[in-house]
Write a structure and sequence with these properties.
The chain has about 80 residues and is an all-alpha fold. It is built from two helices and no strands. The two termini are about 15 Å apart.
């Protein structure tokens, strides 16, 4: 049995929806960045040489993973441990 209250579940739902919104915003940013790169004919990189498109994809994957983990926590699937 879970120790989560209805309030806890509501908070997790709000957090998971924030992750979903972040994922959507990241894809919009990705598309805009690709448009600029196409127009300039150059790829955008950070000061360490990493492509910004790659960083956006990595961040999107992190938000997607957090979204799934919060969903699992809300539904008592055992992928999330509370310590």
């Amino acid at each position: 049995m879970s120790d989560l209250t209805a309030e806890d579940r509501a908070a997790l739902l709000a957090a998971s929806m924030a992750c979903e919104n972040a994922k959507a915003a990241l894809w919009r940013a990705y598309a805009k960045l690709l448009d600029v790169e196409d127009r300039l004919g150059k790829r955008a990189k950070d000061d360490e040489g990493n492509l910004l498109t790659d960083r956006l994809v990595d961040t999107w994957c992190g938000a997607a993973h957090c979204y799934l983990l919060m969903d699992m926590a809300m539904t008592d699937r055992r992928c999330v441990e509370w310590e």
